[in-house]
Amino acid sequence: MDVLNDLMGGFGSAFSPLHLLLAFAGCTLGSLVGVLPGLGPATTVALLLPLTFVFDPTGALVLFAGIYYGGMYGGSTTAILLNVPGETASVPTTLEGHPMARSGRAGAALATAAIGSFVAGTISTVGITFAGPAMAQIAEKIQPAEYFAVMVLAFATVTAVVADAPARGLCSLFLGLAIGLVGIDSLTGQARYTFGVPELYDGVQIVAVAVGLFAIGEALYTAARMRRAPEEQMLPVGGRIGMSPEDWRRSWKPWLRGTAIGLPIGALPAGGAEIPTFLSYNVEKRLSRHKKQFGKGAIEGVAGPEAANNAAFSGVLMPLLTLGIPTSATAGVLLIAFQMYNVQPGPQLFETQSALVWTLIASLYIGNVMLLVLNLPLIPLWVKLLRLPRPLLTAGILVFAALGVYALSQNAVDLGIAVLFGLLGFGMRRTGYPVAPLILGAVLGPMAETQLRRAMAFSEGDWTIFFTRPLSAAILCLSLIALVGPMAARALRRTREREPEPAG
Q: What is the pTM of this model?
């Protein structure tokens, strides 16, 4: 009953005219930017991050809830019409969504993606509503050693999942951790890696880092590809935008299965959206009665992964709100948004910022409904937007990102940091280094250092505390498995590929 009372209080605040307007603006802006080719949810949130600085914390986070969900919805449009996934988790959607568009069924593919995302988002938000407070109570009992181990698990899992080569993922992670060390040491008061620049005493401005890595870096990468790769041809949205009774019959079970796969994996402290979307695609491929259509435009291959993707993204909010641990690049940028307003997600958030967190959860329900109402009617508008010349869109992103970073602090140093990390992000994309471990290292690094020092202080300098406490030792073992397991699987696969086939 306490949860329902708190949720009703959140709805009372979320239904205020200002918060409804901010939710609507967030959904619209998130969809508008998210639909642009190559811009995933993380880039969308980073690009629009400076917009929220003029609002109070509650209003800003309501706006971000809409941007967060809108960015997820928008990515399916480019995946289906342009065969351009906004991020790795959207790849399964392109496998079946684009063939559906080529066969004249783009409207059905877009509809099942939108409705499936709505179903998964709603069920996942219900899960956050009831499981979030309970998870926060459990998190309050976690000691610094376990907290540090959970962060190591998040580092290991994200690095292993998003990196094709583990060495590159670890390099990206360690670079992010080094960025997190810049500034005044909270324990000794000494300046670290500031090089005599006063603006760095408070650390590197993470907003500038996020906007540079995602928005500026992605824009530069897109511009560089224009000279070598022809611009993707967008397929027309043939027929009506909707689903036939047969489409409904083939989609509703994949929606539910995708939600059941995505939510628990996303809610894990080492979750993310990549694993559940590919897992959902494989499940639907095995269970479908239309196996021959896979690869040629099976609607189940769009419905299941899109639901799993949205459920996982919603589930990611659970460890973010209750533990303060982002398990994806998008969640890392959201954590930056919280920290901009001196709001630290974690076990105490539901007690110290009760009104804010329940307004945020209520706005997730509202934003999910708004997106369903907005997206299907606005698909023709998004199609027209995608027809704009790519150089014009890229230039607009660069200008908007630069103005946003400068407007935050009106400091040329932060603008220079954004440009520098934009160039770094461009170089990382060109050379195959993942960006997600870097941003997570930069955001979580200071928190991991704090928990490490607390654990060492409690144990009077005995580093074995991380292995003598059973829960901490178990989590660190999982971290090792999460990091080494994919490496071993890749090595085994390569060995099998090199083995000569037996002579017939």
A: 0.78
